[in-house]
Structures are given as C-alpha cells and as structure tokens.
Amino acid sequence: MDQPLLNRLSVWGCCSCSTLKAWLPILTWLPRYKLKWLQMDLLAGLTVGLTTVPQALAYAEVAGLPVQYGLYSAFMGGFIYTLLGTSKDVTLGPTAIMSLLCFSVVGGQPHRAVLLSLLCGLIQAGMALLRLGFLLDFISFPVIKGFTCAAAVTIGFGQVKNILGLQGVPHEFFLEVYYTFYKIPEARTGDVVLGLLCLAVLIMLLFMKESLGAEGAPTCPAVARKLVWTVATVRNALVVVASSFVAFSWNAYGHPVFTVTGETSRGLPPFRPPPTSDTTANGTVVSFGEIVEDFGGALAVIPFMGLLESIAIAKAFASQNDYRIDANQELLAIGVTNIMGSFVSAYPVTGSFGRTAVNSQTGVCTPAGGIVTSVVVLLSLAFLMPAFYYIPKASLAAVIICAVAPMVDYRVIAKMWKIRKLDLLPFVVTFLMSFWQVQYGIVGGVAVSGALLLYNTARPPMKVSDHGVLVVELGSGLSFPATEYLSHIIHTQALQACPPKSVVLDCHHVSVIDYTVISELSDLLRQFRLREVRLVFCRLELSVLEVLLAADLQGFSYKDSVEAALQSESASLNTDQ
C-alpha cells in the first residue's frame, strides 16, 4: 500500500475518532476511568438518588399527574446523560418549572404528558443537530428571572392547599388564591400540623447545612460536620419517610387524620411507544393532529425553557469546577432523554439545579454517577411503591415549597433598577403574564425584550457636535433599521440648516453594512451634492470601506481621522469663501 494512501487513511481515522468522541463524550473519560472515581460516583449517585425520589414524587403533584409519573421521569436521564452529556455534575429529571409548564399544557392528563415529552425531545434533538443553540441567546435574563419568580410563587402557593388538607380547589392561579382563603375553615388539623412541622424541619436542616460553610461558624469535629451535612443533604427523603411512618401509624390505629397519596401503580413502567391519540371520558377519540393543535405555542416554549434551564446549570457548574461543556451536545442529551423517556411514560425533564448542586458537593467525578441515581429510582419503583400509599401530601407540599422558595429572587429587582431601569419592563411583563398563562408570560417577555432590542438597533446612539462642520459619531453599528433615523438627523441638523452644512460621519463602530444602508447613503450623497456641501466618511473598518468602494458611490469621500476630515472641510469652506 502506497504511503499517500496510508496517510489519508490515518487522517480519516483520526477525524472519525474525534467525531465519534464529540457525539459520544463517554468515550473521552471512560478509557481513563479510575477506581477512586467509582467510589466517589457511587457516593454521589446514592446521595442524589435519595434526593431525587421524594422530589420526583412531589413534582408529579405539581404536574397534576399520579406520583409514579415523577419516578418514571427520573431514571432515563441518568443513563442517557452518561453517554451523551458533557458535564460531570448535571442531573436530568423532573423539575418544578417543567412540571408547572407541563400542567399548564396537558392539565394532568398522563397520555398527553408522555406525548409532550416525545415532541419536546424531537424538537430539542433537532435543534442540536441543526446547531440552533444560539436561539437561546434571545431569551434575556430579565425574562428568565421574571418567569422563575412567577413560577415559584405559582408553585409554592399551589401547595398551600395540600398543607391545609383542602379539597376541590381549582388549579387556575387567581381562582386558586380565592378558594384557598375561602376554604380555610375546612382545613384539616392533622395536615396543617404535619405540613408546618415538615416545613420547620426542612428549613432548620437547610440552615444547618448553610452554616457549616459560613464564615465565623463554630468549629466542631469533622465527623460531626460530615454527619450534619449528610443529614441535611438527604433532608427531603428523611422528612418524607418520617411523615409516612407517622401517617401509617395513625392509619393502623384507625385514625386517618392525614391526606395521603393513596394507591399508585406498582412496578416498573412498560417500555412502549408513547400514545399518538387520546380518548375523552365520553369515548371521543382525539387524533394526533388535534392534540398537537391543543399544545399550540407550548411546543416552542417548553423545549426552549428546558434547554435554557439545563444549559444555564451546566455552564454554572462547569465554570465553578473548571471544565467546559458543549452546548449543542447538551441539547442532544436532553432531547434524546425526553424521546427515550416518552417510551417509559415520562413527562418532559431538564437539568435540576438543586440535585446538580448536591451531585457536585458530594464530589462526583464523571457522569456515571447518574447511573447510580437511576438505579436508586428503579429500585424504588420495583419495591417501594406500596409504601408510597402512606406518603402525606402535606409532606410533599413542604418539600416543594422549600425547593422553589429560593427561586424568588427579590434582590434582582434592585440590581436591574440600578444598572438599567428599562430591563424591569420585560421582567414585570413576564412576571405578571405568567400568572395568567405560564407560556404567555414567556412569550410576552421575549416579545418585549425583542422590541427593546429592535428599538436599540433602529435608534442607535448618535453624538452630534458642531465645528462649523457637523460631526456625527455613530455610537454603535449601522444596520438597515437605523438608516431612516440617521437620515432624519442629518437632514434636520445639516441639510435643512441655513446655510446647509457639510457632515463628517464617524463610522469607527460600524463593522457590517448592508444594501439598504448603501442605498440610503447614496441618496444622502446626492442630497449633499444638490446643496453643494459634502458628506465625508472617516475611521471606516477595512471591510466596510471595501464594500463602499465596490458600491461606487458618486461623491464618496473618505478620511482616516475626524481631525483630517475637519481640516479638509475647513479648507474647502475657506476656498469657497
């Protein structure tokens, strides 16, 4: 075999290997996997698993689904992300926000929730394959914060009825608020006492955990610190287990004073394709097209929010732990997780900030920790489902309230007011509209952010100074929406002046120019010639200068600096005089 052919085969082999590693990141870290990593991954996976099980049960309540659907949604992500994920810390599964979005669309209908997972996964995977991750950049921080704050309030208040043991409260937010207060006299004493006690224990354990790392915290033996940290980390599981034991004890003595979860499907979910049609209570068959039509704009909002939440988490922990992620590969991992999850009756999932933080703090070394977490969830489904009958709804409500409370970030309002007051507009629009319909809040916030962005593009800052010759300095780029504004400034302050003035256009911020701008500049140059004054360009980028020269604009004049342009025009004025 000749040497050139061998070289080509070698290059092809290297390219194929690097491409395969890009699509399957597990091939990057698995060959150098160490025994020490296994120990840390087992510990982290077990700890996250004990956090995941009670949260998954609770988030299913938020989604309006039977509690087992939370567990159905919690195990596929660990397996898929181990193969496709690029962050060692991220854990995929049910989250408060995705559960709320799911409920707002499917209204607690399991079949539709599973189909929604499939469609979201296809959209997310398609975006990854088409490298469309940049679209997430158009969702601004104020929109995200407005949505998360509103979601936290909606989810948190939605659990008050479970703390009080109330029945028959509507799910629409405003009606929910009204009927929750209206039905307070019907509150069950057992649920109220247990719910408040669970909240107190969770908050106490959380503060104990945070105090361990606080400056000036009292010193204590390392074993004690480790014990406190471990107990505080798995606080959700401990509270749910303890409250379930209490509920079981009362029921055994014939005093069912707590509202419990009740019967749940036992065993692992069957592996089958998600349903593509639905049947209503009166027997009417709803086709796939009708279901998709009912989903409407949610098919854009939910995949985007899932991607945004997970990638933001991955970037945060990658920065904290000094490694890099591939955003498009993360999109693919989330998309495939939702696609495969739909075959085991899961609803849409994404990265969880709380569980990812636990994963990182426990010292996980690779994404393999997710496999251990998934095994814990599967074991719970296989053997513990009968015990879930006695889980009090008040305890799950306490878990959810403590999970979403940190999402209400009131300090961000003061920061936006201090930095740029106009950013409060998309924040407020998103926040208020989200109480009407969650997806409308996001769409409304993005629309307002887009309008502000377009306004800034169409009305770029311009500094105008008069030196006998008018100097117009463009404060940002110049694109076609801004041409009319530039033309208006020049006409009103130079061409319509008496006598007309020459203009020096300082373009050092302009890096791109399009046909509409060229056309408008050509017209301006013609207007200047008719009035026997000049329009001089200065400090142009080389690429922009080449475009203007290629356009062969009649009367085009260029100087390297503003000073040179002013000297030239002053000399021209003196000559004319």
Can you put this structure into words, describing what you see?
With 577 residues, the chain is mainly α. The strands form three sheets. The protein has a five-stranded mixed beta sheet with strand order 5-6-7-8-9. The protein has a two-stranded antiparallel sheet with strand order 1-4. A hairpin with a 3-residue loop joins strand 5 and strand 6. 63% of the residues lie in helices and 5% in strands. This is Solute carrier family 26 member 11. It is a multi-pass membrane protein. Keywords: Membrane, Transmembrane, Transmembrane helix.
In short:
This protein has helices at residues 3-23, 26-29, 35-62, 68-72, 76-84, 96-106, 110-129, 141-158, 160-164, 173-182, 189-212, 222-233, 235-252, 288-295, 298-320, 327-341, 353-361, 369-384, 393-404, 411-419, 424-436, 438-458, 483-495, 515-530, 542-551, 562-576; strands at residues 92-93, 278-279, 285-286, 350-351, 462-466, 470-474, 503-506, 535-538, 557-559. Helix content is 63%, strand content 5%.
- Count of individual helical segments: 26
Which structural class is indicated by helix and strand composition? mainly alpha
Overall geometric form? elongated
What is Rg?
A: 31 Å
Spatial separation of the terminal alpha carbons: 83 Å
Strand order of the largest sheet: 5-6-7-8-9
Helix content: 55-70%
Unreliable stretches: none
Strand content: 5-15%
Number of strands: 9
Mean pLDDT: 85
How would a crystallographer describe the biggest sheet? 5 strands, mixed
